[in-house]
Task: inverse folding
């Protein structure tokens, strides 16, 4: 039995493999990408579930339509229109099985074998592997504190043939935590129109702003159907339920419905209904405010500890939201090598290599602050500081 | 924006579009593919859900591993090994988001552009569209009362190049309701080995036997890793939860895990845990026995009514299980034309065209007996008989 060409060279995501080994009660995990389980609105969902089973089981447990549960679609259309200024004119919103499925369906519907997907470098490996699974060729664009370097993006669009997608996580990027500035969003959109390329705006963290101004989604600029916005309930309600949504040009989204029909028929209806009722009866914005308060405190604590415990030659981003901080070691260092030292300290991090387009080692690593407790942050960052000191010493730096 | 080649010619499944229009309180629907909502074990699931929210919400609502919830995988391995004689040696079992995802992941991991997928003709359109979405070329093999014609299958395997998959629903086939005989299963497996082709054994109905002998899964014959078995909880617990499983050769299944990671990260964990607890605490076999009793009675009733109300020139299959009966009108008739007459009678059926590989009209249609009540069956089949009479009269037959 031969594996298909598209899948034969694809390996499991390095992070997910690392995650498997970093689950242990005595390990302080900064390697996760999870939201904090303390923040799941489980009491509210329990009440809703009870009622769904009592009154609506015949519907909630039955097959449904591929586009998703209509009331939820309408609630999200209204929310995204009113609160985030994303116009639904010429656009459609469907429910997908987590933001990841939005990326997958978009790739399936837009990318032919050998087409180019331009992405941030580093970027979210889960998305990069999805593009690879449709035989896309990835071209990475470097990042700085304001996100993707747009001059470099323009160069790529000028020189590469068959570019079909610009994949970006513009807000609190994974893994770097940085946000694409408004000025760059405008330029990115203009380039997408000029070169007729789809911007796939992957935005699972956009509701998690802790400080600074809220930068509007790129999708708010879209008058020409060049932006597909992928959102998720994973970071504000629960990731285990696998419910997300996409908003994009009607023609593309209706093809994505056909693709989704072949992938999983529809997203699990019980939780589409549960999320809909949650939005109806509870104040999502108030809940998000609580998440923000908890995560802001953790992020501030982590930054404070990093300033206290890290060698001054280690630089790091100072995100205004999201779940991640990106740390850069001095030149000549290796994130992978550092992991040997952090392992001894029972602290887990993700080496930068896991996020680079070329899958090459680099002198950076990613930290997550949403999962560890305040105490674990203090203790773990101190241990990580020691590991860094030992590593730098061993490198004669 | 250009839609990718693989998706540009793909249309939504005709049945799903028909289903959308056949939902109405005054219509008797024989067009569904749903299990009966009366049979969902919703009280049991409600109890389990309550407990999951109370004690295990932090886990059940969090991210999980792509392979699926381990206890459920182990329970299903044991069940399929002990009860259905499927050896796990050299095989792996993973949880997928409904049987449909099993088909999708298999296609993605095995089929290259232009490769051939051999399938029964007629067959389940949802699967055929999935193969098309990976640029497979479909070659249909005719059916009779014992399932796929194996001589014709051999001819195809001899003459076609790059055949990668034999797609079969061997037990209570959709749409025909027929079962592939044991003798033919053996021959199909031998051919798969000889030509090194994967048998994708799609078996969502295999636990729903109402009469006759249970024919063992093709997978029980597999000593060489040429069979992938796709199963589902959709027809015995609930389809809305989107939980299924596949069993297949380790190398293939581990690639399917990588593909699944890119599609939806994992199946919704809450219901994987719920199904696991259901299996642990309740007697699934007893529940299946109840489903069988209800469906057997409905099937018998439908056959009885068909014998009473249908023109004698209409022939039909007499399934030993599953959800469907396949009816054939006299030569020269059209399933699509008949629908004009059934519409007036407020009865919905699915014309055979929706299942043929060439998507051409034919003189057949599919009936579902799991959804309508006994009363609806009596009334609806009588109305359908009238519609057939009127149609045959209009055709001067």
Result:
């Amino acid at each position: 039995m031969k594996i298909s060409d598209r899948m034969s060279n694809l390996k499991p995501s390095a992070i997910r493999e690392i995650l498997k080994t970093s689950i242990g009660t005595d390990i302080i995990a900064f390697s996760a990408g999870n939201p904090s389980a303390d923040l799941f609105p489980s009491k509210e969902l329990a009440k809703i579930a009870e009622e769904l089973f009592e009154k609506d089981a015949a519907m909630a447990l039955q097959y449904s339509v591929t586009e998703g549960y209509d009331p939820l679609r309408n609630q999200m259309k209204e929310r995204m229109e009113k609160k985030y200024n994303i116009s639904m004119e010429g656009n459609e919103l469907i429910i997908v099985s987590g933001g990841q499925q939005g990326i997958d369906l978009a790739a399936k519907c837009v990318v032919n074998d050998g087409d180019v997907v331009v992405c941030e470098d580093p970027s979210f490996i889960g998305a990069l592997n999805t593009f690879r699974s449709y035989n896309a060729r990835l071209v990475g664009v470097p990042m700085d504190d304001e996100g993707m370097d747009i001059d470099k993006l323009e160069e790529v669009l000028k020189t590469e043939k068959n570019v079909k997608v610009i994949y970006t996580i513009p807000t609190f990027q994974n893994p770097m935590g940085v946000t694409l500035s408004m000025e760059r969003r405008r330029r990115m959109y203009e380039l997408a129109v000029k070169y007729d390329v789809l911007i796939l705006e992957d935005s699972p963290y956009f509701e998690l702003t802790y400080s600074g101004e809220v930068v509007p989604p790129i999708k708010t600029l879209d008058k020409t159907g060049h932006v597909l916005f992928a959102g998720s309930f994973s970071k504000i309600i629960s990731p285990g339920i696998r419910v997300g949504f996409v908003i994009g040009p009607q023609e593309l989204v209706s093809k994505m419905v056909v693709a989704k029909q072949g992938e999983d028929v529809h997203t699990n209806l019980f939780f589409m209904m549960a999320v809909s009722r949650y939005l109806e009866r509870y104040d999502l914005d108030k809940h998000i405010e609580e998440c923000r308060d908890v995560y802001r405190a953790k992020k501030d604590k982590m930054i404070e500890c990093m300033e206290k415990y890290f060698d001054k030659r280690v630089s790091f981003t100072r995100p205004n939201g999201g779940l991640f901080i990106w740390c850069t070691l001095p030149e000549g260092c290796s994130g992978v090598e550092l992991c040997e030292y952090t392992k001894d300290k029972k602290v887990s991090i993700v080496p930068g290599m896991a996020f680079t387009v070329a899958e090459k080692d680099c002198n950076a690593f990613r930290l997550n602050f949403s999962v560890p407790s305040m105490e674990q942050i203090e203790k773990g960052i101190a241990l990580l500081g020691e590991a860094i000191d030992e590593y730098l010493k061993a490198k004669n730096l």
About this structure: The longest strand of chain B covers residues 137-144.
